[in-house]
What does this fold into?
Amino acid sequence: MAFEDLLEDPVVQKYLHELVGPKGMPVAAAPPDGEVTDEELAEELDLELNDVRRALFILYENDLASYRRLRDEDSGWLTYLWTFEYDNIPENLEEEMYRLHDALEERREYERNHEFYLCEICSIRFEFGEAMDYGFECPECGSPVESMDNDRLINAMHDRIEALEDELNIEKTDAEA
It folds into this structure.
């Protein structure tokens, strides 16, 4: 998939935005062909050099950019020439989906294996032990805390896990909701 096609995809845009943030997004969204220096990018995009460098290093850490160093013979200064490697984006997104899947499974089990209580006034949720420590009263407002049914949350996580398993073509981990 070409850079242009990738960058049109809203999922890819969101992924890049999550990585580099709003200040780094102009760098991530405008990858030049070939090599470019951080100074050239900053000037071309009218951005602060530190914001460009921060975005480039984040892209580098996520295998979406690489660089090579050149040393000026006279001054000894190093120049970094950056190349964008967005071919890795689909693989990175798939890894993120696996991480999300694992985190959701872990959280779903936590929700299933704990009893929760809720202060309806403050919307604060407590585990059973915490609620018991507070005498089943909210420490913020003194209202009684009520047993909370988290089945909707568990079911929503289950649905999301199933959707991820379908998309990732992995064996179902749980048949029950």
Summary: The chain has two domains: 1-84, 91-168.
